């Protein structure tokens, strides 16, 4: 503080005015920064929620489409015959206990 005592009165007044002028500017900058961060976080949250809802609707529509396709296929006689044949062959494969098939079955 010894250097402050050595300054002339004009320099002291200039220094005081600069400090007094900078304090509100720094305060305004800090408050603006805080508000900008809050606004950006709110906008990001809103955007993410919109994306989430959009994806949710897309997945629900896709699942409904698949469900409709499965319902239609389940009514076809050739599909039921094919599934019965698949089950019979699978059971036969398990009974034979082939070494290659057991390794493949473990993977799936």
Features:
single chain, 108 residues, 2 domains, 4 helices, 0% strand, rod-shaped
Element layout with pairings:
Blueprint: H1 2-5, H2 9-74, H3 77-96, H4 99-107
Summarize the structure in short:
With 108 residues, the protein is mainly alpha-helical. It is 92% helix and 0% strand. The protein is rod-shaped and about 105 Å long.
Description of the molecule:
By secondary structure, this protein is mostly helical. Helix content is 92%, strand content 0%. The chain has helices spanning 2-5, 9-74, 77-96, 99-107. It is rod-shaped, with a radius of gyration of 37 Å.
Mean pLDDT: 87
Domains, number: 2
Structural category is mainly alpha
Low-pLDDT regions = none
User: Helix count, per DSSP?
Assistant: 4
CA-to-CA gap between the ends?
80 Å
Number of strands: 0
Percent range for β-strand residues: under 5%
Indicate the radius of gyration in whole angstroms. Answer: 37 Å
Largest sheet: none
Shape: rod-shaped
SSE succession:
HHHH
Q: Helicity, in percent?
A: over 70%
